[in-house]
Amino acid sequence: MNKILVVDDDKNLLEVIKYNLVNEGYSVILAETGTQAVEIARQEKPELIILDVMLPGIDGFEVCRILRKEMSVPILILSAKIDEIDKVVGLEYRCR
């Protein structure tokens, strides 16, 4: 079964995403902080990470930077940010 790590500090959004992914047959792991996300990703080795940018503690961009150095797992950035600079920063991390 494909394992997906979903990272967001909004518990309601986490549950909605989890519900839909589980109904599609995926195994879902949840994290609410950047620190949790890094620890869980290292331990669980998910096949995909859905990552919010605005997280307590270390933000999603930093989580992405850390994990890119350690693994090549696909990361989907989930964000309410709409500024062009935020989009550019997010795209830069996909190549590292």
Task: Please specify the SSE layout and strand pairing.
Blueprint (H helix, E strand, L loop, with lengths): L2 E5 L3 H13 L3 E5 L2 H11 L3 E5 L7 H11 L4 E4 L5 H10 L3
Helix pairs in contact: 2-3
* Main sheet summary: 4 strands, parallel
Helix and strand string, N-terminal first? Answer: EHEHEHEH
Mean pLDDT: 87
Number of helices: 4
Uncertain segments: none
Please provide the count of β strands: 4
Strand order of the largest sheet: 2-1-3-4
List keywords for this structure.
47% helix; alpha/beta; 96 residues; 4-stranded parallel β-sheet
Quick structural overview:
The chain has 96 residues and is α/β, with parallel strands linked by helices. It has helices spanning 11-23, 34-44, 60-70, 84-93, and strands spanning 3-7, 27-31, 48-52, 75-78. It starts with a strand and ends with a helix.
Overview of this protein structure:
The structure is a single chain. The protein is an alpha/beta fold and 96 residues long. The chain contains four helices and four strands. The protein starts with a strand and ends with a helix.
